[in-house]
């Protein structure tokens, strides 16, 4: 596969609204002290051959890279806005402001597939972006496709970003969207027994936190949490370092420290963090909604995602785990036609279909 210069720019600036490439230092060693700096092995040797040619092209096209930090954040966000994938002709995407949680501002959501009087399943979608970037508006095409594939209603929430808003601001925005979805189920045509939550990267972390809050508050049921390479542990890259073959591409230890510190309002890896802000540090995962977790084996989040899946299984939570060999963060978006990317998409879609069918 050969990428044009425009395609490279599109990936670098518009990667599902997450800025995973532009912010991550692709092809470079983290200046923040990544474990990769001590390795003499070419990191590309760990990449699955299905993904390697495209990653090599991107590395050559963006040799300088960029580690995300307070100084580069404005540029990253500007890059998000410069390239948004065009929407599909149908179904229509409706933009709406809904009431926020008590004491919080109204929340923007995007809605696809609403059919008053119907009884459809629904997905609450939460976008990625390291907790500090991205937007729900950049995911319009993705939620249209989910609605088509599952004949369901999809609501995507434009939560407030860090560091301007620290935890629990984003959680309350996401919970407000879940509340609105459930309390307006009749008008939207939603079956409240078949509501799933889905997120990618930081969106997966937000979805995991939302599942914990939904369990603890006991107001609204969730039939499945679909966590796509979720960002679950602030200690990764701070108090827990990774080996050289992990987290070299797309999202690095340094970027992870900045993203988590921005969300938590305290340095990543601190002894004390806000309660229930970090899924990997929650005392009990018993009683959580069933989960699908998918991640690449060389993704920075690979080890933490596998550990979280293990905790869920040991706690009796129905859990499906997919680890894609030699896959880096965002592999399915960067190389969507690769057989492993196609299989990965089929896996989480099948899990979603089963959850909607087996209620």
Query: What is the approximate shape?
Result: globular
Total of helices: 11
**What proportion strand?**
5-15%
Element order, helices and strands? HHHEEEHEHHEHEHEHEHH
Low-confidence runs of at least 5 consecutive residues:
1-38
CATH architecture label name of the domain at 93-238 and 277-357: 3-Layer(aba) Sandwich
Descriptive report:
The chain has about 350 residues and is α/β, with parallel strands linked by helices. The chain has a domain at about 95-240 and about 275-355: Rossmann fold, CATH 3.40.50. It has helices spanning about 5-15, 50-60, 75-80, 140-150, 170-185, 185-190, 200-215, 255-265, 300-315, 330-335, 340-355; strands at about 95-100, 105-110, 120-125, 155-160, 190-200, 225-230, 290-295, 320-325. Strands 1-2-4-3-5-6-7-8 form an eight-stranded mixed sheet, with helices on both faces. Strand 5 (about 190-200), helix 7 (about 200-215) and strand 6 (about 225-230) form a beta-alpha-beta unit. The longest helix has 19 residues, at about 340-355. It is globular, with a radius of gyration of 19 Å. The protein starts with a helix and ends with a helix. Residues about 1-40 have low confidence and may be disordered.
């Amino acid at each position: 596969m050969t990428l044009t210069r425009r395609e490279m720019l599109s990936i670098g600036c518009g990667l599902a609204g997450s800025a995973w490439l532009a912010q991550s230092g692709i092809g470079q060693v983290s200046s923040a002290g990544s474990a990769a700096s001590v390795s003499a092995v070419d990191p590309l040797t760990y990449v699955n051959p299905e993904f390697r040619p495209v990653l090599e092209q991107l590395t050559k096209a963006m040799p300088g890279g960029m580690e995300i930090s307070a100084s580069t954040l404005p540029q990253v966000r500007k890059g998000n806005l410069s390239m948004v994938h065009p929407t599909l002709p149908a179904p229509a995407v409706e933009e709406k402001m809904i009431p926020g949680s008590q004491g919080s501002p109204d929340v923007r959501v995007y809605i696809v597939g609403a059919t008053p009087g119907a009884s459809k399943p629904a997905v609450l979608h939460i976008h990625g972006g390291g907790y500090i970037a991205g937007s729900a508006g950049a995911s319009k095409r993705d939620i249209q496709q989910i609605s088509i594939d599952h004949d369901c209603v999809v609501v995507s929430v434009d939560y407030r970003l860090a560091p301007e808003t620290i935890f629990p601001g984003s959680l309350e925005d996401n919970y407000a969207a879940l509340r609105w979805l459930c309390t307006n189920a009749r008008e939207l045509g939603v079956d409240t027994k078949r509501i799933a939550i889905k997120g990618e990267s930081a969106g997966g972390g937000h979805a995991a936190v939302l599942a914990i809050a939904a369990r603890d508050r006991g107001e609204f049921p969730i039939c499945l949490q679909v966590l796509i390479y979720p960002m679950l542990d602030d200690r990764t890259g701070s108090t827990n370092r990774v080996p050289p073959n992990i987290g070299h591409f797309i999202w690095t230890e340094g970027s992870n420290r900045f993203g988590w510190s921005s969300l938590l309002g305290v340095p990543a890896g601190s002894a004390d963090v806000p309660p229930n802000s970090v899924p990997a540090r929650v005392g009990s995962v018993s009683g959580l909604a069933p989960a699908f977790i998918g991640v690449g084996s060389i993704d920075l989040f690979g080890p933490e995602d596998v550990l979280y899946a293990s905790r869920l299984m040991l706690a009796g939570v129905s859990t499906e785990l997919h680890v894609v060999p030699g896959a880096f963060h965002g592999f399915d978006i960067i190389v969507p036609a690769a057989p492993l990317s196609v299989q990965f998409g089929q896996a989480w879609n099948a899990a979603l279909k089963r959850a909607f069918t087996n209620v």
